[in-house]
Amino acid sequence: MSRSGAPTRAARVHAELRADILAGRLTPGARLPFAELSARYGMSMGVIREALTRLTAEGLVESEPQYGFRVTPVSVEDLRHLTEARLAIETLVLRQAFAQGGVAWESSVLAAHHRLERTPQMTGDDPARLADEWVAAHNAYHLALLSGCPNPRLLAMAASLRDSAELYRRWSVPLGREHRDIAGEHHALLDAVLAQDADAAAALLAAHIQHTTDVLLERSAAEIDAAGL
Fold it and tell me: For 94-129, b where at least 16 C-beta lie within 10 A, e where not — what string?
């Protein structure tokens, strides 16, 4: 394996592993043995280890002494705690963005929403899976909403909580598509920003976050607990 080729192979395996986790092909709590992954992705164990280490840093995989790696497990209790933390932190950060962001912040939110609105949400070959481009645009929009906050520690906390919610967020979309207007929720947030209505925006963001949790608790909480996740 050449030095020039290693980063390319590691990046590809990282992307494939990440996609398999987020799509549920590698389920929460599942063990990730090196030999099986090496055969599955056709890469050396060293490349697999590098990819798993990156995914551990992203919170999608965790390492256990003497047991190796596994997909990060999820639970109803964790979802509720995570939602509580996000509601407290993200609405606080959003209110500070209103107070400090100014026109430059409003413009960034408008631009991020335009990109999100023009990006297809689901993949063409798998209508139950979010498109990677939409996920990136969605994340950029929510980060733009919070970016007007001048406190870097609060911003880092909000970003970390959003990253932790990624698995839940991905699962909630196909479950709730029939009863949810996600695009409308995003547009309502934009309207509140442009109207400089911090109270409305905070309430809309809280409802947006809570809705994701409610969809999962209503439709899949039993499955999560039954699987012992």
Answer: bbbbbeebeeebbebbeebbebbeebebeeeeeeeb
